[in-house]
Amino acid sequence: MIIVLMFGSALALFACVMFINQRLTRIIGTLIFGILFVGSTALMTLNYSQHLGMEKVTTTTHQTIYSAANPLPIAVYQPVGTSGQENVLIYKTNQKQKKATHTQANEYTVSKMKFTNRITPELKTTETRWQFKNNFYRGLFLWSGMNGTLIKRTNIIEYPHAFVKLTASQAQQLQKRMTGVNNSQIQAQAKSFVSAKVQAAMLKQPNLSAHQIHQISQQAEQEFLAQLIRKN
After folding, report:
1. Is the pLDDT of residue 73 over 60?
2. How far is C-alpha 212 from the chain's CA centre?
3. How far apart are CA 157 and CA 113, in angstroms?
4. Confidence tier at 141 by pLDDT (50, 70, 90)
5. For residue 76, what pLDDT is reported?
6. 198 class by beta-carbon count within 10 Å (0-12 exposed, 13-18 middle, 19+ buried)
7. Could you tell me what percent of the chain has a pLDDT over 90?
8. What pTM, to 2 d.p., does this model score?
9. Cβ–Cβ contacts within 10 Å for residue 82, how many?
10. Residue 87, beta-bridge partner list
11. What is the mean pLDDT of residues 95-120?
């Protein structure tokens, strides 16, 4: 609305100055439309520079993700910039995904990883954006393009402790080395390793549920693969 008023008053002001011959009418029209033009321009400037009529709104989302080199338990990242302080985190959103996804790389975004007691990795995204306070300001500054403007974004991926942190190039080199490994032998070793872990846990807690046994198996499998990765 304010944009329409600004351009409309500018055209009306021009018309008053150029085409109205009667002096009094021209002066009155010039004053009215001049004030409207200056006022609407000032409001637009305040909206862009001081975010007039807007407030900060923070939202947080959680998403289960998978290793970019799934099923290998690898936390893949890629350093960006020259400081070495900023990283882009690389992952997959589903197990069948062929091409990996990565976190955003811009001045508004910070991405980092943590290693916790989780069973599966999770991406937590917190965003703070400018949004209009109410429908009045939303209508007033319609088409300004300011609603939803990103202020800052934080991506945190929480990985299980067993995951190994590697750069994208290191992960690619590892995958190449792993192609020459005897898969049947690894599968047999993994099965034996997982079984031993499950049996040890059941000796300590005989009343483990099926869900708990499944979690222990997942953790044991991640631990075995992590040991295999470090050897390679």
Report:
1. yes
2. 31
3. 5
4. very high
5. 95
6. middle
7. 55
8. 0.79
9. 7
10. 79
11. 92
**pLDDT of 153 higher than 60:** yes
Tokens standing for residue 227: 């040991």
| Calpha distance 94→97 (Å, rounded) | 6
- Can you say whether the dihedral through the CA atoms of 28, 29, 30, 32 is positive or negative? positive
- The mean pLDDT of 117-138, rounded to a whole number, is 95
- Please enumerate in sequence order all residues whose Cβ is within 8 A of that of 163, keeping only pairs 6 or more positions apart, or say none: 67, 73, 74, 75, 115, 121, 222, 226
Residue 203: count of CB within 10 angstroms of its CB: 8
Which contacts (CB < 8 Å, 24+ apart) does range 28-31 have?
A: none
Query: Which amino acid is it at 213?
Result: I
Q: What is the mean pLDDT of the segment spanning 162-168?
A: 92
Q: Computed from CA positions of residues 131, 105, 99, 91, in that sequence, does the dihedral angle turn out positive or negative?
A: negative
Question: Three-class SS string for the chain?
Answer: CHHHHHHHHHHHHHHHHHHCCCHHHHHHHHHHHHHHHHHHHHHHHHHHHHCCCEEEEEEEEEEECEECCCCCCEEEEEEECCCCCEEEEEEECCCCCCCCEECCCCCCEEEEEEEECCCCCEEEEEEEEEEECCHHHHHHCCCCCCCCEEEEEEEEEEEECCCEEEEHHHHHHHHHHHCCCCHHHHHHHHHHHHHHHHHHHHHHCCCCCHHHHHHHHHHHHHHHHHHHHHHC
Residue 115 contacts residue 127 (beta carbons within 8 Å): no
Distance from C-alpha of 54 to C-alpha of 129, rounded to nearest angstrom: 10
